[in-house]
Design a protein that fits this description.
Shape: elongated
Number of domains: 2
Strand order of the largest sheet: 5-4-3-6-7-10
Order of helices and strands: EHHHEEHEEHHEHEEEHEHEH
CATH superfamily of the largest domain: von Willebrand factor, type A domain
Oligomer: single chain
Strand content: 15-25%
Radius of gyration: 32 Å
Structural class: alpha/beta
CATH topology of the largest domain: Rossmann fold
Number of helices: 10
Number of strands: 11
């Protein structure tokens, strides 16, 4: 916390003097009372001695003084405020290894639940899109503020096929830079881009990719690091989550069609490199609890920005509350405000 007018803190000396004055007055009070009567007769006049209650209102008043003085110094603090607008592209691995059960109940179900909770906590003005990738990549939901559409897209995910991680990233980047239409013969009309391709967004709109994968890239036309280089060129940060454990196993058919259990460890190295090269961050999620924690952290990282704000009103309100409480207690217990 910083102060715009730190010189105002010198007034805290007055609060200290007020405390000293109150303590001295309490020491002198018995002697002053004895000068105007016989202390031995007090039990016949007063049914019950107030004890600690007679000090509490005064203590609240004394506490309010330094709080008001700090408010006068105009304190500032770093707080998280929602970003005005942004695009978050969820790029989800739905390869066959996402059926592994080392993350309960399965990697895919844990990812769906955590991503759903993450989407709900993003600021309402954020547009969220969804891309899934297995042996190929496809855009399931174009960037939208319709959270129901995104939730429906997440619920529709099914695990099968290989891992085209690079293609998944590339498909998400089409929001920033749609692919060029196919070449046409001279004199023929230019073909329109496929309807599944989004229109380019405003270049000033920030965009991030939230990539979740549980294994190494095994398919696709684009290598993950090449796609990461494209993301860096477009100013898109990649936040990468490595889901699963090194001991994770999945049932998959071999070349002869027989089912075999094969290891399915996450490719942490590639995900770390993608995050580092694009200005994002990488996370390791070996369990469903870890995955939820990662998404919760990402919600504050992606959806909010740190800003310096004056918090004078918080200190002023606290001081007013202390004064009001002290006055109310004094009125109830002693029929006076002070």
């Amino acid at each position: 916390m910083d102060l715009q007018w730190p010189g105002a803190l010198w007034a805290l000396v007055l609060a200290a003097l007020a405390l000293v004055a109150y303590l001295l007055s309490q020491r002198r009070w018995p002697r002053q009372a004895a000068r105007f009567g016989n202390p031995d007769l007090l039990p016949n006049v007063v049914n019950r001695w107030p004890g600690w209650r007679r000090h509490l209102p005064a203590l609240l008043y004394l506490l309010a003084m330094p709080v008001l003085i700090v408010a006068l110094a105009r304190p500032q603090a770093t707080v998280l405020v929602p970003k005005e607008q942004a695009i978050v592209m969820l790029v989800m691995d739905v390869s066959g290894s996402m059926d592994a059960t080392d993350v309960t109940p399965t990697r895919l179900v844990a990812a769906q639940r955590a991503a759903s909770s993450f989407v709900d906590q993003l600021p309402g003005k954020f547009r969220v899109g969804l891309v899934s990738f297995a042996s190929t990549a496809q855009t399931l939901v174009l960037p939208t503020t319709d959270r129901v559409a995104v939730q429906d897209g997440l619920a529709s995910l099914q695990a099968e096929g290989g891992t085209a991680m690079g293609d998944g990233i590339q498909r998400a980047l089409e929001v920033k830079r749609p692919p060029l239409p196919s070449a046409t013969r001279p004199g023929s009309p230019a073909s329109a881009p496929p309807p599944s391709r989004p229109a380019p967004v405003d270049a000033d709109t920030p965009m991030v990719i939230l990539l979740l994968s549980d294994g190494a890239s095994t398919a696709g036309r684009t290598q993950p690091l090449d796609a990461g280089a494209n993301a860096k060129q477009l100013g898109v940060a990649i936040y990468a989550i490595a889901l699963g454990t090194d001991t994770g196993m999945v049932d998959a058919p071999d070349h002869s069609g027989q089912t075999r259990r094969i290891p399915a460890p996450p490719d942490r190295t590639t995900l770390q490199q993608l995050a580092e090269r694009t200005g994002g961050h990488s996370y390791d999620a070996p369990s469903s609890r870890d995955l939820k924690s990662v998404y919760d952290n990402l919600g504050s990282t992606i959806g909010f920005v740190e800003q310096r704000q004056e918090i004078t009103v918080a200190f002023t309100a606290t001081a007013v509350l202390l004064l009001a409480t002290g006055g109310l207690l004094s009125l109830v217990w002693f029929n006076r405000f002070f």
